[in-house]
Amino acid sequence: MNDTWIILGASSTIAKAFTRSVAETGAHVILAGRRMDDLDATAADASARGAAGATPVMFDARDPATFQQIVDTAVATGGTVSCAVFVGSMPAQDAIDADPSLIDGTITDSLTGPARFLQMLAPLMEAQGDGAIVGVGSVAGDRGRVGNYVYGAAKAGFATYLSGLRNALGRHGVHVLTVKPGPVDTAMTAGLGKQPFMTTADAVVADIHKALAKKRNVLYTKLIWWPVMTIIKLIPEPIFKKMSI
């Protein structure tokens, strides 16, 4: 029986690359997001690439009423259920400074919404004793930086949540992978200009599959971000707060 992948935030650039990759293995994909016209197009592409099935489903991280239908759809498809989370939003920090109400949506999109969904999905995955969860965070969550500390706080919280979920579900045969990309060439980063060590969605997805095969717990992509962030985390706070990074 084919695997089933729930893909949250399926309209994102990285999610589409991930969808293409698992569709080509014959998996069933459940494409969850807000833009149904876009999800319909992605579903057609996935079917053409060999997916056993491709089901668009409404998902809004800010509306928990949309969550249960996705779980029910996954149960109905059968097979081993896995989930990849590409949900998040990143308003510019200066926009948040001007309108602090933007914090609520940022935290919900990047932390509390995905965490609530995964908590609903966890009993199913625990019962099946198999499958994987891929949670996409960010290197921004490794330390609060002046340019994006609200987004970074949300991603830091998501990484901590995934760490606990990994501990809980790992005892039942479910693997949880935390992915920490640096800047990726996507619509989300389009306004940031050229960033150091920028990578592509396809490269991130290739790294994810390698990490899943090796049962890695945490993936930095590009790998250069692991030593970079290790150094940044070691900078003493009195020095760090004077830096502009």
From TrEMBL:
The lineage of its organism: Bacteria, Pseudomonadati, Pseudomonadota, Alphaproteobacteria, Rhodobacterales. The keyword Oxidoreductase applies. It comes from the Bacteria. Keywords: Oxidoreductase. This is SDR family NAD(P)-dependent oxidoreductase. Gene3D superfamilies: NAD(P)-binding Rossmann-like Domain. InterPro entries: NAD(P)-bd_dom_sf (IPR036291), SDR_fam (IPR002347). Signal peptide: none annotated. Belongs to the short-chain dehydrogenases/reductases (SDR) family.
